Structure formats: C-alpha cells, structure tokens
Amino acid sequence: MDKFRMMFQFLQSNQESFMNGICGIMALASAQMYSVFEFNCPCMPEYNYSYGIGLLIIPPVWFFMLGFVLNNNVSVLAEEWKRPTGDRRKDSSILRYMFCSVTQRSLIAPAVWVSVTLMDGKSFVCAYSINLDIDTFGNYSILRGLSEVERMRVLAKIPCKELFEHHELRVAASRYIKCISQACGWIFLLMMTFVAFLIRAIRPCFTQAAFLKTKYWSHYIDIERKMFDETCKEHAKSFAKICIQQYFEGMSGEMPGFHRQRSCANDSDDEDEDKKKSDEEKLLGIRAQDDMNKVLWNWHTCKPALALRKDQTDIENNGTVNGEANGTLNGFANGHAHEVKKKEWAVYYSKV
C-alpha cells in the first residue's frame, strides 16, 4: 500500500510528465486498436461511404474527448473559468494557455489514428469504391448494359473479395484508392509536423514575459488547488481525531471505575500531548462545522487576492535589525562608534 501511495505522490508531483506519458500510451493504444480492429466494409452503396468516413472521424473524436477526460487540468480550467471574481481577478491569457496545453495533449492520439487509417487505406477503398471509373483500369465489360443503381451495387462490392468475382479488377481498383489514401496520409503528417514546427519556431519571436507570466500562474493555480485539498484533508483528519478523543474522554468521565484506573496510571503522556498540540495546530483555529462551511464557501465565492502580507514578528525583527544597523552607521558618521562589550574570563587552577 505504501508503494502505491509513493507512486501516486510521485505522479502528482510530476503531473506534466505523467500527462505526457498518458498521451503517449493513448497514441500507442490507438495504433494497436486499429491493428486489432477487424475492418468489415458493408459492401452496400447506401452504407459504404458512411462506414469508411465514420471510421476515419468517429474514433479520433472519441480519443480527443478521452484525452480531455483523463487530463486533470480540465477541472482546474473549468473551476477557474466559472468561479466568482471576488478579490482575485480573472486572467483570460491564463485560461487560454491552460486550454491550449490540454488541447495539444489531447490531439496526439487522434492524429495517430488518422495517420494509421490513411496509411492503411481500407477506409478509403470502402468509402470511394462506388465513384471509380472502371474504364481507366482496362477494357472491362462487366458494367455495360447496367443501370446506374446496378452499377453502384457492383462497384460497392470491390472491398469484399468474397463478393466480387473479378480479382484483377478488384486488386487494381484497391491499389489505386490506397495510393490516394496514402498520399493524403503523408500530406496530413506533413501538415501536422509543419504546424508543430511553426509553434516551436514562432513562439520565441514573441515576447517571453507574457508567456512566462501565463505559464507561472497556470502552474500556481494547479498547485494552489492541490495544496488546498491537502490542507482540507489534514484538517478533516485532525478534526475527526480530536472529536473522537473528546467523545471518549467525555464517556470515560461518566465511568468512575475507568476514571480511577486512569488516574492511577503512570503520567507518561508527553507524546500524546505533543500529538494533540500538532493536531490543534492543524485545525488552524477552525473548530466548528459552521466555521468550516463558511471557510469553504468563502474560498469558492471570494478567493483571496494574490498579495501576501508579512507577519508581525518578521516586521518587528526586521525593524530591530534595521534600527541597530542605522544606529551603527550613525555612530560612525558622528565620529564615534558603539563600545564593544568585553567578555570576562575566569580561570581556575587545581592543586591536584
């Protein structure tokens, strides 16, 4: 159990690497799913085009939505977008940066599926077999004398080798359509690579200050949410522990025999007192259900402004140090310095 907890904490601390790994796994899964997938063209003019194009579009859309579902930043983005403004204003550039980051990762698996599908070419053969011109492949007389409906029915059977009798015509037509499909696949890969290159190359040309600002505050929003959840968990744990302890202490006060046995026991409860103190510190002064509900409601409706204040002790210490430093400088400036305190030493001699 501890190993799983350590692994989960590691994945939480390295969420960006974890999400990149998830995207890679999804890309490999999409390619493996296509290789395992059994392609069965209906070989009917009414359904060939819908089946072939649907195979090219619907799985990428599913992978794209799955990428959004598996990305934890989607919930952070939605919360930041829909939260009330309160004391902290919203920055649209941060929301755009988070959305673009999630979208880029979610597009990897759909791009792999589309590339593999186009390179294989089966979906194109199924979708566009009814639009072929048979005369370009030789002097075949199988379509002569047929109506337009019968011609489309014959051409729709080209993807199915069990239903189409002319083997040479089927092979020639399939190779022709697969050639077009693979050309589209290479064009798609070239376009995706070119777009990625432009994003990488053009980004440094713009101001880096805005990019660093949006990147910093997007990370801050994610880290703040995690730390708030951790603090709430620690508070709930300490609250429950103290509540249970007070309940048992109240019950023990109603039992005279148990109370006498406890009073006669050895007073070795220093560790328990330290634990109680640590639990009290984790409560952060919130000791009632209504107060905690108010804290949670205020955190949602009115998040604090991003302007930290110094503690009073730090201000006093800094003031003392600054006062001493200013006094020393003023003393040197007036021609005299503060007297240095001399240390006294006592020496004892033994006659032994």
Account of the protein in words:
The protein contains 14 helices and no strands. It has helices at residues 2-13, 15-36, 48-70, 73-82, 92-106, 108-120, 122-128, 148-156, 167-202, 208-253, 256-263, 270-283, 289-301, 312-333. Helix 5 packs across helix 10, helix 6 (108-120) packs antiparallel against helix 9 (167-202) and helix 10 (208-253) crosses helix 12. 14% of the residues are buried.
List the topology elements.
Blueprint: H1 2-13, H2 15-36, H3 48-70, H4 73-82, H5 92-106, H6 108-120, H7 122-128, H8 148-156, H9 167-202, H10 208-253, H11 256-263, H12 270-283, H13 289-301, H14 312-333
Helix pairs in contact: 2-6, 3-5, 3-6, 3-7, 4-5, 5-10, 6-9, 7-9, 10-12
Distance between the termini: 65 Å
Overall pLDDT score: 76
Q: Kindly estimate the percentage of residues that lie in beta strands according to DSSP.
A: under 5%
- Radius of gyration, CA atoms, in whole angstroms: 37 Å
The percentage helix is over 70%
- Give the number of helices: 14
Tell me the series of helices and strands, N- to C-terminal: HHHHHHHHHHHHHH
Total strand segments:
0
Largest sheet: none
Shape: elongated
The structural class is: mainly alpha
Poorly predicted runs are 262-266, 328-343, 345-352
Main traits of this protein?
71% helix; single chain; disordered C terminus; mainly alpha
